[in-house]
Amino acid sequence: MTAICDIYDLQELARKRVPRMFYQYADSGSWTQSTYRANEEDFQKIKLRQRVAVDITDRSLDTEIIGQQAKMPIALAPVGLTGMQHPDGEIKAARAAEQAGVPYTLSTMSICSIEEVAKHTSKPFWFQLYVMRDRDFIRRLIDRAKDAGCSALMLTLDLQILGQRHNDVRNGLSAPPKFTINAMMQVLSKPRWCLSMLSTRNHTFGNIVGHAKGVGDLSSLSSWTAEQFDPRLDWKDIDWIREHWGGPLIIKGILDVEDAKMAAKVGADAIVVSNHGGRQLDGADSSINALPAIVDAVGKDIEIHFDGGIRSGQDVLKALCIGAKTAYLGRAYVYGLGAGGQAGVTKALDIIRSELDTTMALCGERLVGNLGRHNLLHPPA
Ligand SMILES: Cc1cc2nc3c(=O)[nH]c(=O)nc-3n(C[C@H](O)[C@H](O)[C@H](O)COP(=O)(O)O)c2cc1C
Predict the structure, then answer these.
(1) pTM
(2) CA separation (Å) from 184 to 23, 155, 181, 312?
């Protein structure tokens, strides 16, 4: 490939470089993938208002996210198994985010542990929490995030049970890959990936293996999830989690106005309007369709963040215009990581920054804080 122009170029490179089970782990939605597709497609239906003869010098993307300075209204979303896209993928992504001046969120289901990421970065990152049945483990996990200096806790509420992604079943997804013929064929067909993986000892779930009782080895994500993720989790649990954490709390996985109101009531600092990238409830609304009603209902009470289907700076701008304070990159940075490690994540962030800045200028705006529904051709009522 000669030039990398957009996120789809990075996706294509990642597809070539990363073993199928891990590439498709990212590039999949649940069941028919209708929500996964809608997340991207619904952005295309939103049209921008072009303005001319406006002074657009001295533009700035600087912003604050939950009171923390950021160089643009972007954050990296929590993504499990990032360290299987590229060796030490979580560390590489966190470093790229640090350089770009945006927050990085480490997943509970990461390959590199909280401590490993903290050791190799110099600015605080955010930690994403899944609630497991073993509450002692959860308390210890929160303590570990505190000890590592994490500056926000993101509690994900939309994965108490795992939505099935058919590709993961077909590919026999596991970390590290099992010694089956199918898995070995997938891995050996990417010799460059295999060799690079020899450079690290981080090959399985670093936050869990050796920390959760009775978990010395964790290979099957789906069976472990079925056993450990807590289906009893409800709004009452947020209280003790918030108290035990004691810092900024972001609630992720909100797609419904009533849930948004609950999240505002339990005292979260922000919510992420999200359907988990179309990986959970297939048939749910796209995130961008769900956003306007949530902004209208609770936008004055709580900071609203957004994810789902962001593949360009234009998508980011559209979410901001509707009322999100920041947008998270999920697959957009994961493809960068698979394509080129830390440099690939930096490339993804550069692409998004430049697309966002140019689009903002062509809409006649100089500051991200000034973007609003007036920049859309047919704004939601
Ligand atoms: C491969 C993959 C793994 C993910 N793992 C997690 C996770 O561990 N925790 C979490 O809260 N969300 C997880 N998500 C959801 C993302 O945080 C985010 O909501 C989603 O990727 C946004 O959609 P997008 O990828 O289309 O931008 C994952 C998403 C992907 C694609």
Answers:
(1) 0.97
(2) 15, 35, 5, 34
Measured CA to CA, the distance from residue 36 to residue 195 in angstroms comes to: 32
276 is catalytic: yes
**Residue 330 CB–ligand 1 contact under 6 Å:** yes
How many Cα atoms occupy the beta-carbon half-sphere of 53 within 13 Å? 0
- 312, 353, 305, 352: which is closest to 326 by C-alpha? 305
User: Closest by alpha carbon to 377, among 41, 43, 47, 50?
Assistant: 47
Taking only the tens place, the pLDDT of each residue in 330-362 is 999 999 999 999 999 999 999 999 999 999 999
CA nearest ligand 1 atom 8, residue: 80
Ligand 1 center from residue 338 Cα (angstroms): 15
Provide the CB-side half-sphere exposure for 37 (13 A, CA): 5
Ligand 1 atom nearest to CA at 109 = 8
Indicate the residue type of 361.
A
Model confidence band, residue 126 (pLDDT cutoffs 50, 70, 90)? very high
Ligand 1 atom at shortest distance from the alpha carbon of 310: 27
